[in-house]
Amino acid sequence: MDEDELLNCMRCGFCLPSCPTYIESGFKESHSPRGRIALMKAVVDGIITPDEDVERSLDLCLGCRACEPVCPSGVKYGHLLEEARDIIQQNKQHSFATKLLRKVAFDGLFPHQQRMRNMTGLLGFYQKSGLQSAVRKIGFMKLFPDHLAAMEKVLPKVPSMKEMKGRPEFLEAIATKQKRVAFFSGCLMDTMFMETNNNTMKLLQLAGCEIVIPKAQACCGALHGHSGEKSGAKDLAKRNIQEFHELEVDYIITNAGGCGAFLIEYDHLLHDEPMWKDKAKEFVSKLKDITEVLIELDFHHNYNLSLPHQIVTYQDSCHLRNVMKTSSAPRLLLKSIHGIEFREMQDADRCCGSAGIYNIVESEMSMKILDDKMKKTKAVIANTVITANPGCLLQMKLGIEREGMSPQVRALHIVDFLVEAIKQ
Fold first, then answer.
1. pLDDT band at 396, cuts 50/70/90?
2. Burial label, 202 (beta-carbon count in 10 A; 0-12, 13-18, 19+)
C-alpha cells in the first residue's frame, strides 16, 4: 500500500455526507471512506488482520469516488481502494468455482472483443427467437430476485452479429473539418450499446471531426481494476496505449463515464513501469468525453437542437464527474435544446447504485441507493432522465421499471438524446 497516501487522510469527516454506503448503512463508520482508510492503515500497521470484516467493508464500497472532490487533503481514495482489493485478491484462497468464474470473466471474455460479440449474440438470439417471450409467459423470471427480473426487462435490444462485425475503422467529417480524433469504442459499448456508439460517431462527424477507430483496441480494464485484477488491467492498458500511440490525433474520445475514468488514470496504473510511463501520460493528455468536445467545437450553437416539450433531468455518472471532472458540459448541451424544460435533480451527483456489477453482487445496498435516487427523480416530475454511462443508464431504467413509471418516464444516454434533437 501507498503509506504516504494513507497518512494524507486527516480523519476530518468531510467525506462522510458524500458517501452513499455510509448514509444507507445507518452511518456506520466502517462503511465510510474515512473508516475504510482507517482499516487499511490498521492492517498495514499490523494492528488488525485483513479478515472477512475488512474485506466486507471494502467490497461494499461503490468506488464512486464522491469523497475525493470534497477531501481537503486531496486523498486519492480510489487508488487506495483498488490497491487494497488487488492485494486481498492476490493473497486470498478462492474456491475452485470462484477461481474458474474469475478466470473465465477476466481472462477469457472481456479482453477478447470477438467473444464479447458472441456473448451479446446469444442475448440477441434470446430476444429475437421467441425464447424471451416464452420465458416471460411461463413466469420463469419469478424464480429470480425482483431486481434481476426487472433488469431482464430493461436490457437494450442488441444488434445482429453482422452489424457487430461490420464496424468502421475510419470516418470523414461531415461538417468542415476541425479536428482529427480517435474513438475509444469499448467492449460493451460496441456490442450491447452499439447504437449509442453509432450516434456518438455521427455527432462527432457533424461537429467537424475526422474519426479513426483502431480495430485492435481492447476493453478499458475497469472491471479488472475494480475487482482486484491489477495485472490484467495493466495488460489491457498497454494494448490500448499501443493501438492509439501513433495515430496523430488531437483527442481520444470516450462516451462512457466508467471507461473514461479508468482510461484517464492509465498514467497512475503504469507509473511504476518506466517503458510505459511516458506513453501513458501522452494517452491520458488526449482523452476527452464526447460532451466536452461537442462544447469545445460549438456544436450546440452550430445546430438548431429542438424537441417536443418535455421535462428533462440529468443524473451524473460518478466517474465522469468525480474523476474526469466533467459535469457542466452535459448540462450545457441539454439546456441548448429548444422545447425542453431542464430541471436539476437534487443530489444528481450522488451515485445511482450501479457501479459496474455492484447492482448484481451487492443488490441489497444497490437497491437502497436506487430507491433514494428514484424519490429524487419523482420530485422533479421528469419525463426523460439523461445520463452519460451505460451502467447508470441501465440502473435508471431499472428504477423506472421497479417504480412502475415506465409508461410516463424514459431514460436515455445523452448522445442518443442529442441525435433525437438533431433529427427533430
1. very high
2. middle
